[in-house]
Amino acid sequence: MKRYPQLRMLATIALLLLLPFAVGTMGNAWVRILDFALLYIMLALGLNIVVGFAGLLDLGYIAFYGVGAYTYALLASPQFGVHWPVWLILPLCAAIAGLFGALLGAPTLRLRGDYLAIVTLGFGEIIRIFLNNLNSPVNITNGPQGIASIDPIAVAGVSLSRTLNVFGFEVHGLYLYYYLFAFVALLIVVVSARLQDSRIGRAWVAIREDEVAAKACGINTRNVKLLAFAMGASFGGVAGGLFAGFQGFVSPESFSLLESIMVLCMVVIGGMGHIGGVIFGGLLLAVMPEIFRYSAVPAQQALFGKVVIDPESLRMLLFGLALIVVMLYRPAGLWPEPRHRRELAGKKS
Amino acid sequence: METFIQQLFNGLTVGSIYALVALGYTMVYGILGLINFAHGDVVMIGAMVALSVTRPLVGVLPGPLVLLIGLVVAAVTCMLLGFTIERVAYRPLRKAPRLAPLITAIGISIVLQQLAMIIWGRGYHPVPTLLPGGMHDLLGAQINDLQLLIIATAAVTMVALMLLVNRTRLGRAMRATAENPEIAALMGVNINRVISATFVIGSALAALAGVMVSSHYGIAHYSMGFMLGLKAFTAAVLGGIGNLGGAMLGGILLGVIEALGAGYIGDLTGGVFGSNYQDVFAFIVLIVVLVFRPSGLMGERVSERA
Question: What's the ipTM?
Answer without folding.
Answer: 0.85
